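call fold(seq) -> tokens
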Amino acid sequence: MSKGVKIFSGRATSELANSIADTFGKELGNVVVTEFSDGEFQPSLEETVRGQDVFLIQSTMPPTENLFELLLMADAAKRASAKSIVAVIPYFGFARQDRKDKPRVAIGAKMVASMLEVAGVDRVMTMDLHADQIQGFFEIPVDHLYASTIFVPYIQSIDSKNLIIAAPDAGGAKRANSYSKKLDLGLAICHKQRKVANEVAEMTVIGDVRGKDVILVDDMVDTAGTLTKAADLFLSNGALSVRAICTHAVLSGPAYERIEKSGLTELVVTDSIPLKQKSDKIKVLSVAQLYADVMHSLVKHESISRHF
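ret:
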């Protein structure tokens, strides 16, 4: 392992960053954030990074200050002569803005990629992007990790011989199909129609879930509208139980209330985004070991293909 490694954390995911650094075998570097009365802030790396391999850990979920804090830390490391700067972004915000789906809108994911590069980031490490093609928005290497390395063993530990993998919508069919092939399980899909964003108008089931324990798979859970409607729909179609496996627990608006009132047995997420409140139905699996392992491989110049 290189001795010239420094790990810093933004304020958004400091608990996860602590776990990653501890697992990696390094203490987090000291970052002091000065806040001005008008809301402006300035992060300062309070130790030398000259000639060092610097890892900056920060998820970029709202508010936008989380992204900007990461950009400022990258700029600070670049101007302090860091050897390399790796942005570790467990949850890549603005990933849903990956294309022009109507006239006169921005491609937010591409803009974020450009800003990270301009700020001085040499490499990005992230997980379960909402759209895989976002990797192509970068002119620098992107290590796109998959939470399936954590979720598959968890699914295998479930005591049931009637499991079936399901996608909450057609867009998630590819992801769900990967799980079904890996686990040699059947596949079901919910077909949904939206009238407006974040609001599902109608859903139908494709596939037989009668007498099955359903595992819904998705990259993120936001307002939980699609997920909870899909769970209730599967149960009404004869499913014995429904669990949901979602990498990123965005959980905004009425999400927690919907999950509590739904027929979901449990919602399994990672700690890429810290939970806003606790729930008996939500189980969190940590990605700290995965990120620490990949970071070790990077500084040793070893292959990370086993993590894909």
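The first helix runs from residue 14 to 24.
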